[in-house]
Amino acid sequence: MLLYNSPVSGNCYKVRLLLAHLGIPVERRTLDVVDRSNRPELLGDLNPALRVPTIVLDDGRPLAESSAILWYFGEGTRFVPEDRYRRAQVLQWMFFEQYEVEPNIAVVRFWFHELGGVPAGQQSVYESKVAAGYRTLDAMEKYLASGRQWFVGDGMTLADIALYGYTHVAGEGGFELDRYPALQEWHERVSSAPGHVPITA
User: Could you tell me the pTM of the whole model?
Assistant: First the structure.
């Protein structure tokens, strides 16, 4: 299998983390997240959105979008509950991650971590994304602080892997994670699970 990958992307990291937990080896091809000029050449026939992660299965079929890739490999494993309602809850949190975490926390982190600061003319957008990012972290903290160890059920699921990807490095975007003790404890539970690999691995 071949993973078109960015080492700094939380979306790519989610895929790498799940594959590490499942013991599935994958070859990586690194793509630049700033200079995308070669994306049409590399991904044009594989992913119409020209985004990473994109994975090419052993039989040559491509699959794009981190959530879809997670579901493909997670289905039938301990990371997807057998109960119908809990499976839907996993999807609920995966959608939450893509609608709330990724457009706000991930973008702010990208600006600071990769671009060195807020792009010119984007100050008001930045302030809006920071406010939305904190609302997202507030919601996650409230949910976990009610006594939950994991986001769905009694063990780690795809929901935890998806949400962990960008929130554990939110500090790289200036978000103050020490305001969120329950969230930090959950980060520690995820990172302490057997098979875990850090985003830098």
Answer: 0.95
